[in-house]
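F.,

This is the one I mentioned.
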């Protein structure tokens, strides 16, 4: 499991290229392991990214029918009012298609990152828990509601959380952290990196 940092983000044009960066992985996993991204994280975002060479696990964690959710912390411009947040919670249509409801709450007491604070004195931190992941969905929704995204960090993928993992770091993940259904058994060991990359490798 790995968390992206600003210095690494410059190289992260697509999710696939993120996985190809050997500097992010321990030497034993840099080549020939078949690791691929489970889901995607756009080039302007940071946070948790999962890498795996287990196709069954990838399907379980990415296909909508399994209902795995992702958690994000998002700084937006301005001070969205209650009505605006209620619209977001209900699901804002994109491309003429309805969106699923979003669990959303306003967070207080956390100072904004320095780039946000210096450029946008009026900003708001939101936490979103989402069950779908359409292309740039959070950014497009925020823009449509009049409060563009200033900073976006994915904090959790299903039951996997960044916790105290710093940007650019990784950690081993115990299989008990993965809740992917009673019928699914994992024959794998787990590595987590923080740009954030979470990696699984089969034995």
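My design for it:
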């Amino acid at each position: 499991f790995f968390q992206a940092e600003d210095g690494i983000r410059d190289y992260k044009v697509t999710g696939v290229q993120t996985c190809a960066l050997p500097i992010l992985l321990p030497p034993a996993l840099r080549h020939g392991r078949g690791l691929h991204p489970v889901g995607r994280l756009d080039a302007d975002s940071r946070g948790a990214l999962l890498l795996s060479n287990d196709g069954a696990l990838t399907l379980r964690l990415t296909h909508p029918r399994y209902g795995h959710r992702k958690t994000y912390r998002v700084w937006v411009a301005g001070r969205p009012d209650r009505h605006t947040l209620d619209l977001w919670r209900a699901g804002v249509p994109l491309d003429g298609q309805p969106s699923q409801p979003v669990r959303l709450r306003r967070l207080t007491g956390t100072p904004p990152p320095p780039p946000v604070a210096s450029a946008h004195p009026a900003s708001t931190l939101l936490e979103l828990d989402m069950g779908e992941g359409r292309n740039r969905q959070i950014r497009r929704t925020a823009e449509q509601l009049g409060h563009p995204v200033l900073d976006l960090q994915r904090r959790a993928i299903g039951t996997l959380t960044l916790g105290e993992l710093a940007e650019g770091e990784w950690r081993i993940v115990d299989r008990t952290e993965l809740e992917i259904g009673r019928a699914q058994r994992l024959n794998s060991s787990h590595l987590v990196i923080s740009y954030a990359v979470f990696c699984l490798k089969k034995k």
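The longest strand covers residues 149-157.

Talk soon.
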